[in-house]
Each structure stands twice: as structure tokens, then as C-alpha cells.
Amino acid sequence: MIDKKYEKLVFAFIMSFLMSFIMSLIITIINLGIVDGFISLWMEAWWKAFVFAFPIILVVAPLVRKLTTQLIK
Predict the structure, then answer these.
(1) Radius of gyration, CA atoms only, the chain
(2) Torsion, Cα of 66, 67, 71, 73 (10° steps)
(3) 34-46: pLDDT as tens digits
């Protein structure tokens, strides 16, 4: 198993992986429909989105946790 000290990094990786995967699928379908070569177009969009999503989540997640804590009080 992965050590607890890497929890935030693992969370950011999994969250960015899944969100970029799902959102790139949805946006690719909206923009292009299901066309020839769809999977390769989607995979290209996905890896590009993931490259940005991972560091963004690393930065934004602590802010979201703090804001959520303030809103829930």
C-alpha cells in the first residue's frame, strides 16, 4: 500500500485522472459527436486535460477544503 503521507498526492492524481477522463469524453462528444477516429481524438484530449488537471487539483484542493469547512460551520 501507499504510505499515508502521500494521501493528498494520490487523491489529486486519482481525482484529476477521473475528472479529466470523464470531462474530455463529454466535451469531445459535444464538440464532434461519435465520428471516425473518436477514441484517438478523445484520448488526445484526455491526456492534454490530465496534464493540466493534476497540478491544478494539487493547488485548488486545499482551498476547496478550507472553503467547504467555512461554509459548513
Answers:
(1) 16
(2) 10
(3) 999 999 999 999 9
